[in-house]
Amino acid sequence: MTAAKRLATALSSLPALPPVDTALILGSGLGGLADAVQGAVLLPYAQIAGFPVSTAPGHAGRLVFGRLFGRNVVLMQGRVHLYEGWQPQDIALAVYLLARLGAKRLIVTNAAGALNPTYAPGEVMTITDHLNFTGVNPLTGPNDDAIGVRFPDLSRAYDPGLLAQLRAVAQARGVRLHEGIYAGVAGPSLETSAERRFFRSIGADAVGMSTVLEVIAAAHVGLPVLGLSAISNAATGGPDQQPDTIEQVLAHAAVAGRVMMQLLEGLLPELQP
């Protein structure tokens, strides 16, 4: 089935829903951001025809519609990952659906390990670019011209205008905001120390198991993207590297989530409807 047909099937199964101008994808440990949505309307993924369902810890697996800091939003409270057994095209479908629901921009969040030794767990990095080490691309195969062009440009995958607005908000609010490059891997095993050192040596600042395929799909469908990483653990791969646990990752991501909330509180009202 083509991407356009899958999208049409998903759309045909939806009930009447509130208007949307901004979409957000919430990563591991960040689902609590949905608690701030006013007048929330919840739609479990399982009720959308042909839509993948989240199984990862901390991912509720539903769309949340409502008002957030003056914007009409839809939040993916939980995403799907390659390591759950889903295909790249399943991940892209979610982004295509967000665009068809009316979103004019996409804010992607994730929990990521800090390759950069100056980053501390609980801090936030905005993504300026990414490295795709998943080994796959959601656009592989015949292109569906009804969705987007065959060769979408990724030289500005993360929108410079949105980044500038976020930078101004962070400065005005006195929020420490890192800017860096995100390396995306397939998971679910955490990286070896040698892999972490390699990623750092080629310019990456943080590493995680999501986001890059969503951003490729967003470029395909023409959605500007802003990326935010919750630094959840130190991942320098040095001699003092400590083992990581999912419990620590989720706890640190929740701390960073509160910082993200401050940034979104300042940013969202500044965006065009």
Automatic annotation (TrEMBL):
Presence of keyword RNA-binding: no
GO cellular component: cytoplasm
Record Pfam families: PNP_UDP_1
Residue span(s) of domain Nucleoside phosphorylase: 23-268
UniProt pathway: Purine metabolism; purine nucleoside salvage
Entry GO MF terms: purine-nucleoside phosphorylase activity
Binding site for a purine D-ribonucleoside: E191, N233
Catalytic activity, EC: 2.4.2.1
Record-linked SUPFAM superfamilies: Purine and uridine phosphorylases
Swiss-Prot/TrEMBL keywords: Glycosyltransferase, Transferase
Lineage: superkingdom: Bacteria
Gene Ontology biological-process entries: nucleoside metabolic process
Binding residues for phosphate: S28, H59, R79, V80, H81, A111, S210
CDD domains: PNP-EcPNPII_like
Stored InterPro entries: Nucleoside_phosphorylase_d (IPR000845), Nucleoside_phosphorylase_sf (IPR035994), Pur_Nuc_Pase_Ino/Guo-sp (IPR011270), Purine_phosphorylase (IPR011268)
Coiled-coil positions: none
Function: The purine nucleoside phosphorylases catalyze the phosphorolytic breakdown of the N-glycosidic bond in the beta-(deoxy)ribonucleoside molecules, with the formation of the corresponding free purine bases and pentose-1-phosphate.
Family to which this protein belongs: Belongs to the PNP/MTAP phosphorylase family.
Protein name as catalogued: Purine nucleoside phosphorylase
Source organism of the structure: Rhodobacter ferrooxidans
